[in-house]
Amino acid sequence: MRNLDITTLRSFVAVADHGGVTRAAGFLHLTQSAVSMQLKRLEELLGLELLDRSGRTIALTASGEQLLAYARRMVALNDEVMSKLTDQAYEGEVVLGVPHDIVYPAIPRVLQRFNADFPRVRVQLVSSYSIQLKEMFRRGECDVILTTEASNGDGGETIAELPLRWIGASGGAAWRRRPLPLALGRRCLFRPQVIAALDAAGIPWELSVETENDRTIEATVSADLAVHAMLEGTEAAHLEKIDSGGALPELPAHMINLYGGDMGRGPVVEALADLVRQNFRMLRGGPLRAIAS
């Protein structure tokens, strides 16, 4: 009877989730060679090739895809058992504030891992605009917040810098219309840059949707009634980056800043801030099924 090792499975899942061996090693606090050795042992144990290394990037084979679903469940079950049956030193609540448009895809991974590490600590997720989140942080209503800003805010730590991209419906044509129909939030920090870029390029535009509800914007863009601007890698799966061939102007990069992650705020808050850093720094790691080594 052969037994699968949880540590090895955890490394396999990390490679799939975090963009390759190098990033997985950083996430697991292991050397790259140690992760590579674990993957090799797993392939030898199963007698299967789990990774296709023939191209410039590493991709999961069909067997790797099949194993990934099982591996996730086994690692999650292991973590649940350990958290339920072992004594935990920390309990309470921590408040994390995140702008609406960067909750996905990183924050669910942060919450999942934090819950495994601190099962008795409740994370209250507050989603709002960067300006409001900074005010809440100033008043002590949030322990850790993220913001999207054009520069490094006073007291903040820049953990990622992502380009702003034009986003539209899959296969849509709204971006070809003039005036260009826009769907923008009333208090969106990207709004001034988007309008300034269009004005500088001499492209007429109109606000098709002006709202404070992100779901309204998403529905309008999905229906190909307008275009939107989002940080690269944060768009929903049913939307896509617009390849306008130069018909739309380039948009500036924005910074994702972390507030409250400085040392001295306690191990729970520091652990949460560290998970946020790790996941947002890997945000541009590429698709999970075509991962860099």
UniProtKB/TrEMBL annotation:
Gene Ontology terms for molecular function: DNA binding; DNA-binding transcription factor activity
Gene3D superfamilies linked: Periplasmic binding protein-like II, Winged helix-like DNA-binding domain superfamily/Winged helix DNA-binding domain
Residue stretches making up the HTH lysR-type domain: 4-61
Top-level division of the source organism's lineage: Bacteria
Signal peptide extent: none
Assigned keywords, A-Z: DNA-binding, Transcription, Transcription regulation
Keyword Nuclease: no
Family that this chain belongs to: Belongs to the LysR transcriptional regulatory family.
Name of the molecule in the record: Transcriptional regulator, LysR family
Natural source organism: Ruegeria intermedia
Source lineage: Bacteria, Pseudomonadati, Pseudomonadota, Alphaproteobacteria, Rhodobacterales
